[in-house]
Protein 1
Amino acid sequence: MKGNENPEGLEEFDSFITKIEDQILEPIIALVAVAAFLVFAWGVIEFIQGAGDEEKRRVGRQHMLWGILGLVIVFGASILVRIITNIAT
C-alpha cells in the first residue's frame, strides 16, 4: 500500500456512507427542519391573532418555543451528521 491509497473495501465504505447521508439523512433533516419552522410560524400567527386573549397568546408562545427548539435540535443533528461523516471518510 502506497501513501494515500485506501485499504481494500474502505473506498466502498466511504461511498456507502456518502450515499446514506445524501439520499436518506439530508432529506429527513430538511423535512424535519421545515416542520419545525412551520410550528414556529404557526405559533407566531396564533400569538398575533390572539392579541386580546392571554390564553391564545400563551399557546402561540408555546408553539414558537417548540418550533425554535426543534430547529436547534435539527441543526445540531445536521452538524453531528457532518462531523461523523467527515470522521468516517
Note: The chain has a mean pLDDT of 87.
Protein 2
Amino acid sequence: MDLEKHYAVGLTSIDSGKSYALSLKAYQENVSLVVKLAKKYNIPIVTNPQLVEILEMLPVDQAVPKELLPALELIISRIESN
C-alpha cells in the first residue's frame, strides 16, 4: 500500500473519553512521517479510508460529530481488545 497518496488523521480523547477531537491531519508525503512516529511511540494505526475521508473535512481541534462516535467506538474497542 502506497501511503504517500493517502490522508492520515489523528484523534484525541476529550470529555473524559466520552468524545474525540481531530488532533492532526496529514496529506501526501507527510502521511509516511505520521505513520513512522505513531509506530515509534506505539500509537495504534487503523486503516479506514471511508472514515478518514469524512474526518479530514473537520477542522483540527473540532470535536467529532456525534453521528460518527459509534464508528469510532467500534474501532477503539477493536484496538483495545488486541
Note: The longest helix spans residues 69-81.
